[in-house]
């Protein structure tokens, strides 16, 4: 695992947006950030899942979170701008965003990638990330230090047979991270990408249904990197692709 000791209250008073906060890694990140004192903004597609995470955060005695139900597949530039304005109106700034939500599409030979699946994967994993990151920049500028973390994959800088649209979308994610990091170098905003590594979640289970789930990391195991990138300990880290495992 990424070698970092999580410190109590290390995210105290931070405002952090987590996409895909209803399930898998995003859910664990939201619970962990909140437990360290952050006010977490839970963005996701399925409202019921977000409400369950909201309840868990309140039950653990953490700051009350906010919920933004949004389907990244259909959302428009205006939806993201309105969302960013609401965040600034309610919280005055944004200290961090974990862009975690994405879809796998289908694992298939390149020859048989369906155009519709390709379009959906690119919409959710690339275009939505672009619109979201762009819309959030004004809110980041209002923070003393701000952290934008994209989520890549083991197939995000080395292509792998049958991982088609998903793999290609993660290359784009890493490219986007590098462009932003270079432009905002020397600013209050840092931008990095996380490679979670094999982690026991619904997405992993759909890609490897026969795998023994006890042999891979849990979302909780990989939290040190997720916390590090949102904490002030990573203020000088920019433009990096970092392995959580
Ligand atoms: N798990 C791994 O082994 C692994 C390895 C490498 C990289 N990653 C990356 O890590 C990130 C999290 O993966 P995960 O395994 O936790 O995935 P997951 O279990 O499938 O969870 C993904 C989350 O994203 C949300 N989401 C999906 N489509 C959305 C949409 N159109 N609009 C809004 N939210 C949407 C889902 O919401 P709903 O539940 O409401 O659909 C869910 O909460 C992804 O970027 C993935 O590519 C994971």
UniProtKB/TrEMBL annotation:
This is YciK family oxidoreductase. The gene is yciK. Keywords: Oxidoreductase. It comes from the Bacteria. Gene3D superfamilies: NAD(P)-binding Rossmann-like Domain. SUPFAM superfamilies: NAD(P)-binding Rossmann-fold domains (SSF51735). The keyword Oxidoreductase applies. It comes from Thalassotalea loyana. Belongs to the short-chain dehydrogenases/reductases (SDR) family.
């Amino acid at each position: 695992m990424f070698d970092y000791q999580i410190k109590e209250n290390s995210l105290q008073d931070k405002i952090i947006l987590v996409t895909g906060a209803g399930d898998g890694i995003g859910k664990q990140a939201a619970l962990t950030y909140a437990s360290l004192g952050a006010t977490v903004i839970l963005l996701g597609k399925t409202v019921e899942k977000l409400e369950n995470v909201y309840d868990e955060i309140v039950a653990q005695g953490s700051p009350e979170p906010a919920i933004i139900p949004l389907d990244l597949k259909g959302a428009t530039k205006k939806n993201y701008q309105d969302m960013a304005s609401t965040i600034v109106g309610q919280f005055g700034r944004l200290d961090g965003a974990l862009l975690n939500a994405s879809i796998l599409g289908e694992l298939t030979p390149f020859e048989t990638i369906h155009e519709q699946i390709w379009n959906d994967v690119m919409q959710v994993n690339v275009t939505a990330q672009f619109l979201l990151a762009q819309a959030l920049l004004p809110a980041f500028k209002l923070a003393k230090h701000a952290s934008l973390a994209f989520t890549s994959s083991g197939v995000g800088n080395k292509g792998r047979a049958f991982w088609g649209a998903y793999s290609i979308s993660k290359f784009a994610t890493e490219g986007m991270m590098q462009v932003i990091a270079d432009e905002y170098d020397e600013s209050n905003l840092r931008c990095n990408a996380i490679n979670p590594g094999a982690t026991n979640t619904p997405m992993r289970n759909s890609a490897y249904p026969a795998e023994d789930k006890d042999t891979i990391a849990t979302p909780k195991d990989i939290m040190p990197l997720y916390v590090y990138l949102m904490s002030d300990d990573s203020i000088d880290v920019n433009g990096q692709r970092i392995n959580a495992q």
